[in-house]
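Quick question, first post here. What does this chain look like in 3D?
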Amino acid sequence: MQLVSFRRYGAGSEERAGVLVPVGIVDLTAAAPLLFEDAEERRWDLLSLLQSESEGYGLSAAEQIVDAVLEQIGQETSQGEIIIEAPIGPLSLGGAHVILPLDSVRLLAPLPRPPSLRDFYAFEQHVAAAFGARGREVPPAWYRMPVFYFSNHGAVYGPDDRILMPRTKALDYELEIACVIGREGRDISEDEAEYYIAGYTIMNDWSARDIQREEMSVGLGPAKGKDFATSLGPALVTPDELEDRATGDGRYDLAMVVRVNGQERGRGNFRDIHYTFSHMIAFASRDVTLRPGDILGSGTVGGGCLLETTGGKGPWLQPGDVVELEVERLGVLRNRVADREEDW
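> Answer (accepted):
Ran it through. Tokens below.
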């Protein structure tokens, strides 16, 4: 499944969860009463779904709802395939719009308010380039454990959101993949870690390099240099959607590309990651409970930021620049850098 969070245009500001299908978005809030008698008593945003998995109302319930909708409005072929004609507008069942056209909704970050946000440093090429720009070798400790920092889970942006230019002279993007935790767990082993992953999404770890450099010279951080924005989206893609691209060792063969104003600025592949998400989950959960909705970022893929591709000298991002991060099978995450004087 490809799960999204969205708001309907002209229908209030309620955040809803949906599933992308070829003809639009299945609105889980509207469609849930088809299967669940107590549907109107429950929340159907994505975080609530993840937190309700043990009660039978999680992602498995979302899959059942989608199947029920498609069976009722589609036509089954002799091969068992459900065929649905693209609607001109919303498709309704029982008076409720259960499938919405994409142009009738505004996509949000899959998890606009995640419980926590950890970002790792897992691609060796990026780590070597970052330390090399400062005339240093990769620290031996990096090869012993998958280190991370906590980012601001209260400053999450979604696809096509504007990113307000922070007070920096060195704004950078970072092309990453993030995993979302789907089950509660503590002291999770590497062998079991993949079972705790609800899905994957694209992540842009926006960075103010001049602030980051100063604060880290003190021996702490990054913190303020990352505090202002993290973008996630456009969808949360469940692991079964990627099975045919799995390499068998916790990695996936997925091309990763970044463009600025339509021009390619960097390219990498998820298979080149040094520490897998299983390594990260096992390390993060040591003596700590991970909870549904917690987000773990991979760190920047090699060549996925201006710090690498310009040798740390810029030019850096400016107001008006449009940054697109594309990851094969996960979609495109697009944001524009906005001037502080724009009308907000």
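Residues 117-338 form a domain with the Fumarylacetoacetate hydrolase; domain 2 fold (CATH 3.90.850.10).
Helices lie at 28-31, 46-51, 59-73, 124-132, 209-216, 277-284, 306-309.
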